[in-house]
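Field log, afternoon session.

UNIT: design team B
ACTIVITY: writing a sequence onto a fixed backbone
BACKBONE:
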């Protein structure tokens, strides 16, 4: 997947069944990335890939070293997937998803 030059995007999920205990995503960018506005959104989808909840992140215009976004623990109503999306200048550039299964 293409992301802006100089950017690194990671997403971590720890869960027990449908209980997400810990989830975070981070982005690291160089000077080129610092010129853009960006945010990290979290979404949850069922096994048919229908998104049922989105947590939109705060928009940033700076690029600090390893800016990280944590999401609160979640009790999911469905098995499916938990995703993090990097949005740059209002355009979703990359997503990373983890499948939450039995």
């Amino acid at each position: 997947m293409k992301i802006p030059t100089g950017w690194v995007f990671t997403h971590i999920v720890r869960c027990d069944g449908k209980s997400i205990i810990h989830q975070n995503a981070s982005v690291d960018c160089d000077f080129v990335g610092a010129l853009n506005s960006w945010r990290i959104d979290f979404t949850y989808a069922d096994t048919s890939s229908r998104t049922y909840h989105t947590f939109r992140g705060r928009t940033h215009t700076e690029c600090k070293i390893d800016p990280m976004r944590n999401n609160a623990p979640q009790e999911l109503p469905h098995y499916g997937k938990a995703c993090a999306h990097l949005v740059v200048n209002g355009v979703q550039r990359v997503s990373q998803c983890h499948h939450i299964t039995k």
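LOG NOTE: The chain has a mean pLDDT of 86.
NEXT ACTIVITY: expression trials, pending approval
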